[in-house]
Write a structure and sequence with these properties.
Elements (H helix, E strand, L loop, with lengths): L2 H10 L12 H9 L9 H11 L31 H4 L5 H28 L7 E10 L6 H9 L6 E12 L2 E11 L5 H9 L5 E11 L1
Antiparallel strand pairs: 1-3, 1-4, 2-3
Helix pairs in contact: 1-3, 3-5
Length: 215
């Protein structure tokens, strides 16, 4: 066998097709470049050749391109010429072996898919967080705003981090507390948080969400 036909024989020893798991233009390209191979010399090529022959009516519609098959066609066309008539008529169970190799290819494919799914399942999940600007209004200008803020910050919940704050004038000498917080969306309900803040009724009249942005 020439180097290229030898490479084709070795290649098809572990595969059913020149490229992929179904017949393609790569198979058509190589098929047209060689003569019927000698089964005793190139058993794998002969099996493949007989199998691809069954698709001859579909050659023009098979997917893919001939690029993958060019490696085997430069000198392979001179090899594998038809043997004597007696050898040509020899009956060989080509498709039984082909079915076994197809099953092996499907098994390998299934193993790879399973491994990918395991890897995907073990990938760390992204934790969704939000930055929230909360406004807390006191009852009047006599409310102790430091005590109000200390009360708000005393709320400790999993997934809640208090940030910077400032007092913002709203008129008549009254100032509201504007405070930033970061929450883990799955763990913190802003409605529940506002209800907890409202429990400090000696200082707090109401709360509002002034802004919210996903991280």
């Amino acid at each position: 066998m020439s180097a290229n036909l030898s490479a084709l024989e070795q290649h098809l020893g572990t595969r059913s097709y020149v490229e992929g798991y179904t017949p393609s233009q790569a198979d058509v390209h190589v098929y047209k470049a060689i003569a019927a191979p000698v089964p005793s010399t190139c058993p794998h090529v002969a099996r493949w050749y007989s199998h691809i022959t069954s698709y001859s009516a579909e050659f023009d519609t098979l997917p893919g391109s001939s690029t993958a098959g060019q490696t085997f066609t430069q000198t392979a066309s001179a090899e594998g010429s038809a043997p004597a008539a007696a050898e040509e008529e020899e009956e060989i169970d080509l498709f039984g072996e082909d079915e076994e190799e197809d099953a092996e290819a499907e098994r390998i494919k299934a193993e790879r898919v399973a491994a990918y799914n395991v890897k995907k399942a073990n990938k760390p999940k992204t934790i969704a967080k939000s930055v929230v600007t909360l406004e807390v209004k006191p009852w009047d200008d006599e409310t102790d705003m430091k005590a109000l803020e200390d009360s708000v910050r005393s709320i400790d919940m999993e997934g809640l981090v208090w940030g910077a704050s400032k007092l913002v004038a709203i008129g008549y000498g009254i100032k509201k507390l504007q405070i930033t917080l970061v929450v883990v969306d799955e763990l913190i309900s802003l409605d529940d948080l506002q209800e907890k803040i409202a429990e400090f009724e000696d200082y707090i009249q109401s709360t509002d969400i002034a802004a919210m942005q996903k991280l």
